[in-house]
Amino acid sequence: MGNINSGDTALVLISATLVFLMTPGLAFFYGGLVRKKNVLTMMMQNFVSMGIVTVIWVFGGFSLAFGKDIGGVIGNLQFFGLSGVGMAPNPIYGATIPFLVFFLFQEMFAVITPALITGAFADRVSFKSYLIFLVAWSLLVYIPVCHWVWGGGFLQQMGVVDFAGGIVVHVTAGIAALASVIFIGKRKMNPDENTAPHNIAFVALGTGLLWFGWFGFNGGSALAANGVAAFAFVNTDISGSVAMIVWLLISWKREKKPSIVGALTGAVAGLATVTPAAGYIHPWAAVIIGAASGAICYGAVILRSKLSLDDALDVFGCHGVGGILGSILVGVFACGTINKINGAFYGNVHQLVVQILAVVITGAYTFIVTYGLLKIINKFVPVRVTEETELLGLDEDILNEKAYL
What one-character-per-residue DSSP string does 327-395 give? Predict the structure, then answer.
């Protein structure tokens, strides 16, 4: 325990609590965007991930992700039940913090990733099927990809970099959202209904909590209170801010009026996009990434609408496209004087090629497994609720509760 640095440990512990706060923040963000008859179900799907994924993470999930590599594909079970996870640092995963702190920090990433997917199939998935999906997807998608990129798996061996989860979190969640939407289909609507957010104040509150938590999400991934963490904090704020302004201006011009929902969505897209690059780039690159995110993710949302894909809360457009974009751009703008890795801008084109290959492999794997999981689950438990339940509202029919009396 002599190598433990109190400042590094404090930063990562605080960052873990900030990432923890992002899941309730996501619940408010998504809850405000759906219709009022489904807000509690939406929030429940997010909150329940905090319980179920934590149990998975303790009993095997963390070990499969970060245990000794088996064939570049998965970890072993050496850390099952937190065996060997205690005060002593692990030299691979934070040499100056207790290994238990690293476990906690990574747990929060595992919790929020499947929760992100819920925005895509909002208003039409049964709670029982979602619970099965949550467990199966965590075990078959999130944990293997986490090992590939961060736990010593084949992508990490290829030289892929992902500072805080562009591939591990946002690409997997975004591509899974796309697969879910294609499998499940469009929402049913009563004749007098529309899909406008029922509580924009909730959306604003959720965005604030997400943005606040994102400083821990990205900054804490340095695993030390050092200059890399400082870059990550600053780049996070810059990218989210620039993306918010770009999205606002584009949507204002297109729709003739400014929109707070548009501005908030743009901020989330910018935060997601800079995630894989936050600790590798200079602030000027964060400006470019934020601007590109605001424009490209907005374009993806418009294209999704034209293709009539009912990604209810635009998870693929913001998180999927943002994660793909950021994971590629880190291969362009990464600077070795900040964090050892140079991108194409600094003469290392190979890094860009590796990043693109990782995105393709991860995206294809995630889509195939997610779609297959939903198909298998649907054979035993109907994934989609009945039309009667959908029109009445999931809160009343499934939970027997109402958000507003």
Answer: HHHHHHH--HHHHS---GGGT-HHHHHHHHHHHHHHHHHHHHHHHHHHHHHHHHS-SBPPHHHHHH-HI
